């Protein structure tokens, strides 16, 4: 009998990499994630190749860099021609289920301007079957609450205000008004268990999404008091926002424009105005929401154990992007700092040797997730895919040509809720940056603004810009060339391996593979 192969892809939202116990966050209580790390491989140097949510999830689920999929910001459409994980899984006989969201705006050429999907932040990516919808506008979750008998307030998001008539919006040690058994994390978990129990003995793929620890930063009881603010790591930042913002015009713009209302229901004031105590409380709340997710995952893992499916299931835990959390006086996911781009990646491959929780330092990127899943299931990895399967790394066979640096991008053109172009004097196609980073150096190239260069050995937190320092001029040149070479190597290549010949169409990829096999023989 052929062994069935299941895939559980867990995608949390806004969970940064340094809030993982296996990577040093000893203050965090996540026993189920700890188990996954023990039974799998935890990748120390993993990044999303784009932020915020829409571009990040487009890269995660298409395996394409931002430069190729071009869904460059939330609300910007994703070209329908791109292959994605959902479509690819259908080609090998899977009916890919999705709980949560992908923040995808549809290709306007496939529908009309009155399509309601163009009135929301994003919807579901083609190819997946929703079995636990959150979008549009969280209707799936709010409908579930109403069906459970919860009396929704007129302004539905008021459920995430702190409990108590005298509570003030903002960083708080009070619980939110919704109980844990009715939280959005509980909703996603119930949907997951309902789906899994319905599948019975049939093989399955499940994208299990969680909204947390995404803002609003307020936790359900008892998670609101699980961590003390004084236990949290202190923020890494300059003496004040003005000193921080002097590093670069784009950074200065965001320090001036980020508002607390995007992170705390009904809060007022600038994000950069949060003091040390407020940041510590916000971080304690952030950790509490992580522990709630971990408890929810424990229910899913327990069911897979009980039904003996755990040993047949590839489990991947990752996030769409990170969170500044007060570092560099910033909130959210933006810019070029590591806190926004470094995210968790934990892979438990039942075919790989159990090594007692290996920590892998190889450079990996979010575009590697799609090809890894297809590789494990025996599917075909699209030629256009920019990522690579990490299965050889899991099995201890590091390819000699594995990447030697990380790359990621941020497009900061105007969208409905953010208007950087006018403030920075940029055109729509000029508001972008690309980062090339390794263990020693970090280069940030802007389309129309001054570059940045950091010596990570001397300045790991990236306060001192050396781009104009003559002592580093040669290295700045070298890393700029790395960026250019990277873009040339990864230019869109869906059809570039075909050629017309006197004998008809030739697939040069197939020809090259055959030649390599003959040489090996």
What are the SSEs and their pairings?
Layout: E1 6-12, H1 31-39, E2 41-47, E3 50-51, H2 53-62, H3 66-69, H4 85-91, E4 97-100, E5 129-133, H5 139-147, H6 184-199, E6 205-209, H7 241-245, H8 249-257, H9 276-306, E7 313-319, H10 338-341, E8 345-348, E9 358-365, H11 369-377, H12 391-394, E10 406-411, H13 420-424, E11 432-437, E12 441-446, E13 452-455, H14 473-489, E14 498-501, E15 504-507, H15 508-520
Parallel strand pairs: 1-6, 1-7, 2-9, 3-10, 4-5, 4-6
Antiparallel strand pairs: 2-8, 7-8, 10-11, 11-12, 12-13, 14-15
Helix pairs in contact: 6-9
What does this structure look like?
This protein is α/β, with parallel strands linked by helices. It folds into two domains: 13-395, Alkaline Phosphatase, subunit A; 497-521. 29% of the residues lie in helices and 15% in strands. The protein contains 15 helices and 15 strands. The chain has helices spanning 31-39, 53-62, 66-69, 85-91, 139-147, 184-199, 241-245, 249-257, 276-306, 338-341, 369-377, 391-394, 420-424, 473-489, 508-520; strands spanning 6-12, 41-47, 50-51, 97-100, 129-133, 205-209, 313-319, 345-348, 358-365, 406-411, 432-437, 441-446, 452-455, 498-501, 504-507. The strands form three sheets. The protein has an eight-stranded mixed β-sheet with strand order 5-4-6-1-7-8-2-9, sandwiched between helices. A five-stranded mixed β-sheet has the order 3-10-11-12-13. A two-stranded antiparallel ribbon has the order 14-15. A hairpin with a 3-residue loop joins strand 11 (432-437) and strand 12 (441-446). Helix 6 (184-199) packs parallel to helix 9. The radius of gyration is 23 Å and the shape is globular. It starts with 5 loop residues before the first strand and ends with a helix.
